[in-house]
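Bump. Still looking for Prohibitin family protein structure tokens.
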Amino acid sequence: MEKLPKIGLPILIIIVLTIVFVSKSTKTIGSGEAGVLYKTFGGGVVTDSPPLGEGFHLVAPWNKVYVYEVRQQEVFEKMQVLSSNGLEIKLDASAWFQPNYDQLGLLHQQKGENYVARVLLPTIRSAARSVVGRYTPEQLYSSKRDAIQEEIFEETKKIVGNQFIQLNEILVRDVTLPPTIKEAIERKLRQEQEALEYEFRLEKARKEAERQKIDAEGKATANKILNESLTEKVLKEKGIQATLELAKSPNAKVVVVGSGSDGMPLILGNQ
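Sorry for the wait, here they are.
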């Protein structure tokens, strides 16, 4: 009976060690994440095989697993850059990105867990300075924002694509100019708009004058043709037809045939 406690203690120790071993040998990867395996006695970071996917994994307790988010993420950056004429512009942009899944081991080995601050953000700032420096404040304020956004995206993607990062989009959310420059641009835009409106009114007036001229010329031509077609015989025939129509009217009247200066009938009524 005295030997039972002595036998039970080693068993208890074994059970505890087993629990500790198992707890240290398991790793659960969450949704939208992946794990990079680091083998302490096996060459360090595993780069020649895919990362550990979502779910439960058994890992030797002397190894480590570094977990990365592999879903699309967004990072914001506010920058001060110079335009083509040396004016300071404030740029508010964001980037949609995610690590390259199949190269996650290389990303961890060469760039580390802080790869966004080490690689992505400096590249965005450099590309933004390069691109904005090609444009004037007027272009940045009005018509070129989409072009600037696309150029920053292309230049950033060209660099980070070789750094195991997948860049999905660059969004230029705001461009802030110095107040005096902004006011000058807005004043110039208003003046240009007023000039366009004035040109529109002039063009409208010119077209209206042209229309009236064409209308008057048409009426004059019609009158000329009508006058040339109204011969004496035609007029007499029209007068006779009118006399016959009036004679049918119930109103009292006197018709004197041939009493006009041109031999046309005269119609005298009591009204």
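The chain has three domains: 3-69, 73-177, 236-269.

Edit: fixed formatting.
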